[in-house]
Amino acid sequence: MSLYLPSGREIRLGDKVLGSGAEGLVHDLADTKDLCAKIYLDPAPDLHQRLIALMRTEPASWLGDHPEHKYVAWPREPLMDDTGRTRGFLMPLVEGEPLTRLFDPEVRAGAIEEPSWRVLISVGARAARLLGKLHAAGVVMGDVSAANILVSPGGHVTLIDCDTVQFTDPVTQVLYRCEKLTPEYAPPASNGSATQVLSPSHDAFSLAVLICQLLMEGEHPFEGVPSNPADMDALASDNIRLQNNRIVFPERFTPVPGAIPVSVLPPEILRLAQACFGEGHRNPDARPTPSAWESALEHVGFELMGCRVNDRHLYHNSLPGCVWCARMAQGFDDRYPLRRVAPRIVIPQQGVPPGQAPWPSMSPLPQQEVAQKSAKDYARVIGLWIAITVAVFIVLALLGSLL
Description:
Layout: E1 3-4, E2 10-11, E3 13-20, E4 24-29, E5 35-40, H1 47-55, E6 77-80, E7 86-92, E8 97-98, H2 105-111, H3 117-136, E9 149-151, E10 157-159, E11 167-168, E12 175-176, H4 200-215, E13 225-226, H5 236-242, E14 253-254, H6 267-277, H7 290-300, E15 304-306, E16 314-316, H8 323-329, H9 367-402
Antiparallel strand pairs: 1-2, 3-4, 4-5, 5-7, 6-7, 8-9, 9-10, 11-12, 13-14, 15-16
């Protein structure tokens, strides 16, 4: 199938399919590495008008946190076939991994440069800030889910599937609705389908689910083993409708060995989640805004404690000890494994007998030697400080006598 820009220039698709879904496929391009193309299987009749309207909105001009980063994979140009029918659009090619890959420790280690709990908190804050920016621009994402957020190796986030958002054409004032939702992230009033005009509080509910998942190692707050056998086959969307969640009603679920407990959440984060899934279940106005989540997550980032055993084990200072070490002590896997340090290769120097180090040993000092060295260093610092103080008093005395 031949595809063309509105100017008549032909666009050649590459050989790679970068993504696929119920709506269509995302292809690379043969002539550029900066863009890609989404091609619909069954384009909607108003697709062309919707794309033109999207290109007129504020997010179309957004860049990112640095030159290589984009906040949103926003449509750039419509793509038409030989008959003039719009079949898809060009958008920026975003490098990154779906947020879902941060839930698994083995996959997470290859997805981001520093796979630690601190980085997950930062990713959550960035996602909240980005949703807040969209709301300020009059856009409701609608389909907020871990699959629709890409994370770069440095932990920066980009929203994809932006062609489905709810927005108003700034020129014609026509409202375009979001017709695609992910049920396990959608608030109860939506029932998993977009049949109404969405408010920013819709995204606020989805964001709360997402942040709980991030900080609880992928554990969905509305999933688990129900205490009531009648709810055994309930899906996350069913539990959302019934308000069955582990944040507000932990007694509705049976504790599972190895599952990440709700207590891992910092008190400030837990309070926001309880507000969203408690009163905010039926009252959308009670759901914390993205800016409230961003502020809380940024604040929590300065309240983390380090672990003496593993520098990747970070936890909130409200807890009595390292939750990740406690989990390992119970026989479960390490969610944040230590860095793998490559063995040092020693190249013997000419004339050095075998087995003798060609340079001073870099192994740690024994504890006694460390203590003695620290005491000597401390004594030197104190002596230097006393000498400087005495010198200052002498100079001041001399100046006083001269005056």
